From TrEMBL:
SUPFAM superfamilies named among the record's database cross-references: Aldolase
Residues spanning the signal sequence: none
Quaternary structure and partners: Homooctamer.
UniProt keyword Metal-binding, yes or no: yes
Phylogenetic classification of the source organism: Archaea, Methanobacteriati, Methanobacteriota, Stenosarchaea group, Methanomicrobia
Sequence similarity: Belongs to the ALAD family.
Record key words, sorted: Heme biosynthesis, Lyase, Magnesium, Metal-binding, Porphyrin biosynthesis, Zinc
This protein's record includes keyword Chloroplast: no
Official protein name in the record: Delta-aminolevulinic acid dehydratase
Length: 325
């Protein structure tokens, strides 16, 4: 009798859920939120249909809506009213992110929301790079950037952030943030490091949203070359040694091999960032009627989890949470 093994036996409707290997819940999702000091009403990001930048005082309502969908955490990105060469609006105590975090913290209805803040300089600097710049050499300087990231992280924690997420790919950023937090009695604030962040064209639409395009050069001297995989392991190992509590791979879908290796080899709590370009492609295809948006969302998020992500940052977080209800 052939075939003896019939894989289709377990694919019968009633039994499928018993043998499902990957399950997503809203607990796995982190919802990005853009707050912008320059606007008075929500503004849709042109290259990210369905994603809005919000005035600072909308943050609490947004957090509540996200929380009501069962999503336990948000990641805050700020667009400041003022930019300068060093990015000082990143760390002042009354700047865009700090204000948004307080806005949420002061609102009792979103008390259970875990607030994560993106720690980087690119949205706050006139040149748009993630570090201090030497204009003569057109170089992004590593070590002078580190104390600024430390200060920024502390200011976020002071405002009430539950976790900080450095995304600038500077060497030593986790260690300097860890020691600054510790020196300021924030030894219990964890660090989610964008540890394996690639130099990716998939960030294009985000730069629309966060107004973080750069004035010269590109980010290839600090973000990783998409050709490399072993290097991601080293990056993540270093961040673990420096004190990272959660490590992130970014982007997600084109880098599932990296995600798989990192989860498999390093066994850390691992996040994946389903970035703006991944979102924009799906939205564009769906708007043209070329793909079924909800099915693509479900399949994409499932694939990212299956590859090894414990948590997924995605602009589809709210849509996904609704699909799961
Ligand atoms: C800032 C930052 C970027 C993203 C998250 N944090 C942009 C970049 O590095 O250019 C990208 C997110 C996305 O594309 O969704 N350092």
């Amino acid at each position: 009798m052939f075939p003896q093994v019939r894989m289709r036996r377990l694919r019968q409707g009633k039994l499928q859920n018993l043998v499902r290997e990957t399950t997503i819940t809203a607990d796995d999702l982190i919802c990005p939120v853009f707050v912008d000091e320059n606007i008075e009403t929500p503004q849709e990001v042109p290259s990210m249909p369905g994603t809005y930048k919000l005035p600072v005082d909308y943050a609490a309502d947004e957090a509540k809506e996200i929380s009501d969908l069962g999503i336990p955490s948000i990641m805050i990105f700020g667009v400041p009213a003022r930019k300068d060469e060093s990015g000082s609006s990143a760390w002042g105590n009354n700047e865009v992110v700090q204000r948004a975090v307080r806005n949420i913290r002061n609102d009792i209805s979103s008390r259970d929301m875990a607030i994560i803040t993106d720690v980087c300089l690119c949205e706050y600097t006139t040149h748009g790079h993630c570090g201090v710049v030497d204009y003569d050499k057109e170089e992004i300087l590593n070590d002078p950037t580190l104390p600024l990231l430390g200060k920024t992280a502390v200011s976020h924690a002071e405002a009430g952030a539950d976790m900080v997420a450095p995304s600038g790919m500077m060497d030593g950023m986790v260690e300097s943030i860890r020691s600054e937090l510790d020196n300021n009695n924030f030894e219990n604030i964890p660090i989610m490091s964008y540890a394996a962040k690639y130099f990716s064209a998939f960030y294009g639409p985000f730069r629309d949203a966060a107004e973080s395009g750069y004035s010269f050069g590109d980010r290839s001297s600090y973000q990783m070359n998409p050709s490399n995989s072993n290097e991601a392991i080293r990056e993540v190992e270093l961040d673990i040694d420096e004190g990272a509590d959660i490590v992130m791979v970014k982007p997600a879908l084109p880098y599932l091999d990296i995600l798989y290796r990192i989860k498999d080899e390093l066994e850390m709590p691992t996040a994946a960032y389903n970035v703006s370009g991944e979102y924009a492609m799906i939205k564009a295809a769906a708007q043209n009627g070329w793909m079924d948006e909800n099915k693509i969302i479900y399949e994409s998020i499932t694939s990212i989890k299956r590859a090894g992500a414990d948590m997924i940052l995605t602009y589809f977080a709210k849509d996904m949470a609704k699909l799961l209800k």
